[in-house]
Amino acid sequence: MEENTLVQGRYRLLRRIGRGGAGEVWRAEDEALGRLVAVKCLMPEGHHDGELVRARFRREARLAAGLQHPGITVVHDFGDWSGVLFLVMELLDGEDLGRLLDAARSRRLRPSEAIGIGRQIAAALAYTHERGVVHRDLKPGNLIRTADGTVKICDFGIARLGSDQGSTARLGGNTFAVGTPYYMSPEQIEGTGVDERSDLYSFGCVLYELLLGHPPFHKGDPLVVLLDHRDAEPPPPRVERPEIPVPLERLVLDLLAKDPGERPADAREVLRRLDEAAEATPPPRGVLPPWARGIGPVPVSLVRVIPEPPALAALTRRWH
Predict the structure, then answer these.
(1) I want to staple 137 with a disulfide (CB 3.0 to 4.6 A). Which of 10, 124, 159, 280 is the partner?
(2) Catalytic status, residue 228
(3) Could you check whether 6-90 and 94-279 share the same CATH topology?
(4) CATH superfamily of 94-279
(5) What is the residue-level pLDDT of the chain in tens, covering all 320 positions?
């Protein structure tokens, strides 16, 4: 695809903003409505199952277009234009969680911030899972935090289309895509069937990375990582970072259970346990405790970071 291409006689491609596998994402103008959008283009001609990819794209694009939730990127349109499958989505002003981590100190987030982001992801997963939609490729690159702090999941049901056209490997007699091995569930690797609990495993990998700066298994080539997902126990987060609250570590490890039946029952349970972890998580430095505000206990998600006044800091030091 090239700049200034007019897709379907309506979407003018302005600038490529992402590329990977068989797909590209473009900043574009919807000339019919006069608004900026993101256009994702997939070209399945080189894929040996091109017609199957097209059929799946149409089916899953319809599913994605039917999702309406603050934590999910809005799909405006989709189609097949001159052999190019395209998906038109809202253009987000923000950055994916991978870039957010890259900008953070030691590539880690505070536990309270990780919980806040995790709650938004879990709420969006609960909505989609209750409607029978599984993402299947949850990773930091598909999670965008916008300028106002909202976290949105991108590419529901569509993300794997591009990776299916990339390299594959064989493990245990099954062939599978290895586009993002750092976040794949054991059942994805084994090819034994994927449901919403696979998304919860991938979410556990993301939460682990938000807290420690790297996924649970990240050493070695992709095949080694895949074998670790299938066979190895993840190092407990508190071994590397003792300040992580125990309830939060327990949740992460439960999400990373090899057996899907041993993971939390659903995303609603994950959301509830994140709330419990928030209660056990100290607020960031500089946040005034509830008693100092005279308003009683407040939810962690509503606490604002307020610099500690010098006088209060001095008084605190005197009393301690």
Answers:
(1) 159
(2) no
(3) no
(4) Transferase(Phosphotransferase) domain 1 (1.10.510.10)
(5) 899 999 999 999 999 998 866 678 999 999 999 999 999 998 765 555 677 778 888 887 888 888 999 999 999 999 999 888 999 999 999 999 999 999 998 899 999 999 999 999 999 999 999 988 899 899 999 999 999 999 999 887 665 554 443 334 445 454 444 448 999 999 999 888 889 999 999 999 999 999 999 999 999 889 999 999 999 999 999 999 999 999 999 999 999 999 999 999 999 999 999 999 999 887 766 554 444 344 444 454 444 343 434 433 333 333 33
Picking from 236, 87, 64, 227, the residue whose alpha carbon sits closest to that of residue 137 is: 64
Task: Write down the domain spans for the chain.
Answer: 6-90, 94-279, 290-319
Is 42 in contact with 23 (CB distance < 8 Å)? Answer: yes
CB 67 within 8 A of CB 133: yes
User: Are 92 and 185 spatial neighbours (Cβ–Cβ below 8 Å)?
Assistant: no
Longest dimension (CA), the chain: 73
Of 77, 137, 164, 199, the catalytic one is 137
pTM of the model: 0.81
CATH class of 6-90: alpha beta
Taking Cα atoms as reference points, which of 150, 128, 152, 147 lies closest to residue 200? 128
- Alpha helix stretches (DSSP H) within the chain: 50-65, 97-103, 111-129, 159-163, 186-190, 196-212, 222-231, 237-240, 246-255, 267-279, 290-293, 310-319
DSSP 3-70: TT-EETTTEEEEEEEEEETTEEEEEEEETTTTEEEEEEEE-GGGSTTHHHHHHHHHHHHHHHHT---T
CA distance 311 to 174: 65
